[in-house]
Design a protein that fits this description.
homodimer; about 80 residues; alpha+beta; three-stranded antiparallel beta sheet; 2 helices; 3 strands; about 35% helix; PurS-like_sf (chains A, B); Phosphoribosylformylglycinamidine synthase subunit PurS (chains A, B); ligase (chains A, B); nucleotide-binding (chains A, B)
Amino acid sequence: MKARVTVTLKSGVLDPQGQAIQGSLKSLGFSGVGAVRQGKVFDVELGESDLSQAEANVRAMCEKLLANTVIENYTIEITP
Amino acid sequence: MKARVTVTLKSGVLDPQGQAIQGSLKSLGFSGVGAVRQGKVFDVELGESDLSQAEANVRAMCEKLLANTVIENYTIEITP
């Protein structure tokens, strides 16, 4: 089983990296670029075969390590 | 219009960050964790209203800045 975890900053949290990328895109000549927000994505291979157990495990991984839940949101997609 | 770009390492490319995360998950007591691969996700607000033009623009952004196409793959999802 494989899980994809996408971690993004909560709205309202300042994203200096995103702003730097937005500036670079403009200086490369891309017009009409609005806000850019950068996040992380994790592909985790899991040994479980039970879907709900796998989801619970990945949720715990996010809460403990993969996401800083004070300033970040996370979504989990599990593929068999 | 909004685009989500997901950038991940090509298979076969060493991912020391992913290995470090895998080790940390094991030391936190998560058993059965296989390989972990980390990537980036970008949410870009676009001024275009034409879907194909927006896709072409984002593809050019990836080729020029958002992805290192020698070692990374990217996928683009555009939502109106």
